[in-house]
């Protein structure tokens, strides 16, 4: 699939639709040729959203606030709403009054309740089982999630772990759950590196915002104890760091291992080069439902090493399962680190190709068509 447009271009198209609909006269005089799906929120830094919708026949409208989306729905200018990162429920336009989190959550639920009562169609994508920095969601955010789980006409999940959480924990009616795996990242970060033999000293990468639940601390501790002298090269930890919320990794680096801490956002144009210099991506999460990093690693043709938790096993090819350890096994992480470092070059090349093939199977163009088909089947579009 070489006809994938850059994610940035797709995002601009979604934003252009939103800007056009701000006009009071344009929607009235412009003939509708296709359905419109309003998406809230639509954070610009995250390429996931443009990659979720690239081949949909429906027009995607990036909503700056839920209130704007409800208004457009009342006017008949959008046909359905798709809620994504519900933890950003307080997003608003500069013309809307600022509210406390509790007030914003109450308004969020009331707006959607009225929208559904008038016959509006609602979809929700369930990303996480818990919040990024806390063990549980705050009470007002929990109320929003409960409302979405029970009232959305479709709850989109990425794997069986997500489906189980939606039904068993959030009490979503099973018939409303649609499972479509997280799309790969073709179109987001340039050209993926070509398969290449790994060096004798193996290189590992932990990528993305550094958060306590990602288990980098445990990985550093076990890395110092693993029997990889003469086969381990380096670990690079690259991503945004918050002194208030991220763990202090400098004090945890083992003295017998080469580790680089590259704090700060990685520019989009540098992502492919960063993955080209690694052999394994570390996904050692303490808790996880879905991992965008796993999808990105597959896109880059890099195997995952980490824990068998949540939906990670479904996010990689079966040949990669031997590098995922049982979280109840106290020696499991050390063994998979050693296994990765001892892997033959031929086996590693094979695994790189399997990862690339897996990423092609969840290509954004494929996944967006599946999602639209599910939305049509459930009356969203």
Write up this protein.
The protein is α/β, with parallel strands linked by helices. 36% of the residues lie in helices and 14% in strands. It contains 13 helices and 12 strands. A 6-stranded parallel β-sheet has the order 2-1-3-4-5-6, with helices on both faces. The chain has a 6-stranded parallel β-sheet with strand order 9-8-7-10-11-12, sandwiched between helices. The mean pLDDT is 93.
Topology:
Blueprint: H1 7-20, H2 26-29, E1 36-40, H3 48-52, E2 59-62, H4 66-74, E3 80-83, H5 101-117, E4 121-125, H6 139-151, E5 154-157, H7 160-169, E6 177-179, E7 202-207, H8 216-225, E8 232-239, E9 259-263, H9 271-276, E10 280-283, H10 292-299, E11 304-307, E12 324-325, H11 332-342, H12 345-361, H13 364-377
Helix pairs in contact: 4-5, 5-6, 10-12
The fraction of residues assigned to DSSP E strands is 5-15%
| Average pLDDT for all residues | 93
**Percentage of residues in helical conformation:** 25-40%
Largest sheet: 6 strands, parallel
**Structure annotation, total helices:** 13
Tell the overall outline. Answer: globular
Structural class: alpha/beta
Low-pLDDT stretches are none
| Radius of gyration over all CA atoms, rounded | 22 Å
Number of strands: 12
Write down the secondary-structure element order.
HHEHEHEHEHEHEEHEEHEHEEHHH
Oligomer: single chain
Strand order of the largest sheet: 2-1-3-4-5-6
Termini distance? 26 Å
List keywords for this structure.
six-stranded parallel beta sheet; 13 helices; 12 strands; 381 residues; alpha/beta; 36% helix
């Amino acid at each position: 699939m070489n006809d994938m447009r850059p994610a940035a271009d797709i995002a601009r198209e979604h934003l252009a639709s939103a800007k056009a609909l701000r006009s009071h006269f344009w929607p009235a005089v412009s003939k509708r040729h296709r359905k419109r799906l309003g998406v809230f929120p639509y954070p610009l830094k995250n390429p996931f959203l443009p990659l979720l919708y690239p081949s949909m026949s429906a027009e995607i409208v990036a909503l700056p606030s839920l209130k704007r989306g409800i208004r457009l729905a009342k006017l008949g200018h959008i046909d359905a709403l798709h809620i994504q990162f519900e933890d950003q429920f307080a997003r608003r336009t500069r013309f809307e009054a600022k509210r406390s989190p509790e007030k914003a959550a109450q308004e969020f639920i009331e707006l959607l309740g009225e929208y559904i009562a008038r016959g509006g169609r609602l979809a929700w994508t369930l990303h996480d089982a818990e919040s990024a920095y806390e063990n549980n969601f705050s009470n007002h955010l929990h109320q929003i999630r409960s409302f979405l789980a029970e009232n959305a006409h479709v709850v989109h999940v990425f794997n069986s772990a997500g489906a189980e959480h939606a039904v068993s924990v959030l009490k979503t009616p099973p018939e409303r759950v649609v499972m479509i795996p997280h799309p790969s990242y073709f179109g987001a970060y340039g050209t993926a590196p070509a398969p290449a033999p790994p060096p004798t000293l193996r290189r590992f990468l932990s990528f993305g915002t550094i958060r306590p639940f990602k288990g980098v601390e445990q990985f550093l501790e076990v890395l110092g104890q693993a029997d990889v002298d003469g086969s381990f090269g380096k670990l690079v930890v690259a991503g945004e760091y918050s002194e208030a919320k991220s763990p202090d990794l400098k004090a945890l680096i083992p003295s017998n291992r080469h580790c680089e801490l590259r704090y700060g956002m990685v520019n989009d144009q540098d992502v492919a080069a960063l993955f080209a210099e690694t052999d394994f991506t570390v996904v050692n999460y303490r808790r996880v439902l879905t991992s965008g990093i796993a999808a990105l690693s597959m896109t880059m043709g890099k195997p995952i090493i980490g824990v068998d938790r949540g939906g990670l096993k479904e996010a990689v090819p079966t040949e990669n399962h031997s590098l995922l350890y049982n979280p109840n096994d106290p020696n499991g992480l050390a063994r998979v680190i050693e296994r990765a470092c001892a892997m033959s070059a031929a086996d590693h090349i094979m695994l790189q190709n399997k990862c690339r093939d897996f990423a092609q199977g969840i290509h954004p163009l494929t996944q967006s068509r599946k999602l639209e088909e599910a939305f049509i089947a459930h009356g969203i579009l």
